[in-house]
Design a protein that fits this description.
about 60 residues, mainly alpha, two-stranded parallel sheet
């Protein structure tokens, strides 16, 4: 899994799963500068309500 993959999935579906969010927070110490910026953008979208915390249904 990568931050970019999580970001794109969340952006396309409008949902981020708790497991994905946990993965991001667990690995944030290993992120390079671009991945940090992506994670910050993901957090801002969550704060703005554009991405919801939940589960994706097929």
């Amino acid at each position: 899994m990568s931050v970019g993959t999580v970001f794109l999935e969340a952006l396309l579906s409008g949902v981020i799963t708790p497991a994905e969010l946990q993965w991001v927070t667990h690995h944030q110490g290993e992120f390079n500068r671009l991945e940090e910026a992506t994670a910050l953008r993901l957090g801002r979208l969550l704060d703005a309500g554009q991405i919801q915390l939940g589960c994706r249904l097929p």
